[in-house]
Specification:
Number of strands: 11
Strand content: 15-25%
Shape: globular
Distance between the termini: 57 Å
CATH architecture of the largest domain: 3-Layer(aba) Sandwich
Radius of gyration: 23 Å
Length: 299
Amino acid sequence: MATRTFDPVTLRLFVAVCEERNIARAADREAIVASAVSKRIAAVEAELGTPLLRRGRRGIEPTAAGQALLRLSREVLATMARMHAELSEFASGVKGSVRVVAAPSVLAEELPEDIGRFLARYQSVRVSLDEQLSHELLRTVREGAADLGVLWDAADTTGLQAWPYRSDHLCAALPSGHRLAGRARVRLEDLVGEPAVGVIGGGLMDLLLKREAAKLGREWVQRITVSSIDAAWRIVAAGLGVAVLPREAAPLPSAASRLAMVPLDHAWAQRRFVVVCRAEESLSASARLLIEHLAQAAS
């Protein structure tokens, strides 16, 4: 029996069902009737000879075969979207586009300026820049939905190619009148027990601090958690706690006079960032140029 080629509409509908966990919601999202969605998925299951979906406690869930199809569908759809975007831009004079995803800490430092200098030099290239947590970023790159990712090298980048980018230095962010504000350096054990301000609970920094505190037989407890480094500086400046933040992500001028930044005396306090991609040979010329530019900025 001849194998029917998967079409993009069916792949997109399958992804929508897996993400929405409900055929009716997936149909609404894709502006199609629910019966048509069911019919397309049933046809694929009949052709493959294996079920792709099952009903679970949280709604519809992909089977093992469905998980494989979901991953491949996302890769195919992302490739097609990039192909369409890059080719359509030739009509407007743009000779290439690069999608970059970056971790919050990288975006809070020098990456935007580095990309700005790249665009000033290569004005016919378009770069889109999105913020994602490290685990989301790695999935996005692995699935081919982004060309490049920029993040802390403490993340598991197995299977991806990586190039060194910049580094930063973690410090204790303290209210200016804090008892530790006059020290040349501090250690994590000096901060454990203080009211702590965290940035994005469950992120790499949060996990690092909890792990290092556990080595001391202590617990790193965040009393306040915010979604950005700028917000953390403001909270510390208001005297509501202490934080571990990169000194390169300078606080807002309005808060700087009420802050003390004391370097952390730990080897792990110097973080190194990397640029990652799936495979260099699959990159466009524009993406390769951007990697070279960021590597030069790092050096």
